[in-house]
Amino acid sequence: MEFSGTHQAFRDRWAKTDDEMCKHSMSFHLHNTLRKEFFASYLYLLEQIPLVKLYAVTCEYIKGEKQFYYRSQNFYKDVPASEEGMMGDFVEISEIDLEGSRQFLKKFVGPGKAGTKRALDCGCGIGRVSKGVLFPVFESMEMLDMMEEFILHAHEVYLGDYADRVEAYYLYNLQEFTPPTKRYDVIWLQWVACHLTDKDLMEFLMRAKQSLRPNGVIFIKDNMARQGCKLDPIDSSIIRHLDIMKNIIQTAGLTILDVEKQEGFTEAIVPVWMIAMR
Fold first, then answer.
1. Where are the alpha helices (DSSP H) in the chain?
2. Pairing relation of β-strands 166-171 and 140-145?
3. Residue 12: left if φ>0, alpha if ψ -120 to 50, beta else—which one?
4. Short-list 39, 9, 10, 45, CA closest to 25
5. Are 84 and 91 in contact (CB under 8 A)?
6. 200 pLDDT exceeds 80?
């Protein structure tokens, strides 16, 4: 097809890059050479072709490490373990965000719906969502994040008495985590799906589906592009159009129960959507 020649040209260029700068992946040099607008358009073109996934661009293994994830982990090393750090200097919308999540969660939990025994907060950070949304509903929590500093701050400071109800903390990258089977009533992913390639997000959702208790629900709340896909090379995140996210979810074998836009954010903020699925 028309895009294949361009795709091959990129691959030829990647092949010539230094091994130390992630050969066959989106290298530092490539990021600084390509205009961001052109690269976003290229990703958008790829997304229009069924079954063509971002992992063709971002997920080549280089000496056992993915540069896509390496950049993300490096970025979060400099993020403070605080609400301001978790909200990226948009702390003023934190309560609006939490209230939107509480109301959306309420639709799916209760008699005849998902139970309230246990939830898993993926990409929990210091526990902002756990504390403000999940702990008031669930008897116990399990929390996962790739940054040890965030988890320690959650347990020792931020969660307060709620910390006694945490059954387990997982220090993991989400793409490498396999949750226990049939364990959770709710699995919550907020502002973390954007840090996974399409392939890894799809595969995690497949694993997460197996970890749900009867009537359990998986929630994704994340930034969504107004069109196509956009890559932020600084924190190594991808924002996808809602339709692209839906396609990944459905390819993973999950059924979408409801979709709702987070209201109350300023126009300066990328649209945030909530998706419930099982």
1. 2-15, 28-33, 36-47, 55-58, 67-77, 83-86, 94-106, 128-129, 148-153, 198-210, 242-251
2. parallel
3. alpha
4. 10
5. yes
6. yes
Structural tokens at position 35? 């205009």
Are 276 and 258 in contact by the 8 Å Cβ rule? The answer is yes
pTM strictly above 0.90: no
pLDDT digits (tens, 9 = 90+) for 72-127: 999 999 999 999 999 987 899 999 999 999 999 999 999 999 999 999 999 999 99
Report phi then psi at 110, rounded to 5: 135, -170
Q: Is the pLDDT of residue 66 over 80?
A: no
Query: Which residue from 237, 269, 252, 197 is spatially nearest to 47, judged by alpha carbons?
Result: 197
CA distance 103 to 153: 27
Q: Residue 3 is which amino acid? A: F
- Backbone phi, psi, residue 243, to 5°: -65, -35
Cβ atoms within 10 Å of 239's Cβ, excluding its own: 22
Residue type, 230: K
Separation between Cα atoms, residue 133 and residue 198, nearest integer Å: 27
End-to-end CA distance of the chain: 35
Q: What CA–CA distance (Å, rounded) separates 208 from 202?
A: 10
